[in-house]
Amino acid sequence: MRAYEYLLKHSQELSERFSGKYVAIVGDEVIAASDSGLEAFKRAKGKYPEAEIHVSYMPTEEELVTLL
Predict the structure, then answer these.
(1) What residue spans define the domains of the chain?
(2) Contact (CB, 8 A) for 48 and 33
(3) Which pLDDT score, from 0 to 100, does residue 68 have?
(4) Which residues face 58 on adjacent strands?
(5) pLDDT tens track of the chain, all 68 residues?
(6) Rounded CA gap, 30 and 50, in Å?
(7) How far apart are the first and last CA of the chain?
(8) What phi and psi values does residue 27 have, to the nearest 5 degrees?
(9) Which residue among 35, 40, 49, 62 sits deepest, i.e. has the most Cβ atoms within 10 Å of its Cβ?
């Protein structure tokens, strides 16, 4: 899955850019970002109705520290 590989490869950059947001990824591009995972998905689906969409939450720095 290209979107998942993109997410893993760019996780640090995406976490900084979209901290606390849900991102919808198609292939190797962030298509939408939102406070809501459903909203990010809907926006991406509206732009790319036939595409496989990967939605992931980008934790804040505080959330990352808590996870450790």
Answers:
(1) 2-67
(2) no
(3) 56
(4) 21
(5) 788 899 989 988 999 999 999 999 999 999 999 999 999 999 999 999 999 999 999 999 888 777 55
(6) 16
(7) 27
(8) 65, -115
(9) 40
Dist. CA 44–CA 58, nearest whole Å: 17
> Are the C-beta atoms of residues 31 and 43 closer than 8 Å to each other?
yes
- At 3, list the tokens: 């979107």
Token pair recorded at residue 11:
């996780």
Residue type for position 10: H
Q: What's the whole-model pTM score?
A: 0.87
Going by C-alpha positions, the residue among 30, 26, 27, 2 that lies closest to residue 14 is 30
Tokens 């990824």: give the residue: 25
The confidence score (pLDDT) of residue 3 equals 87
Determine phi and psi for 21, rounding to 5 degrees: -115, 160
By three-state DSSP, how is residue 32 classified? strand
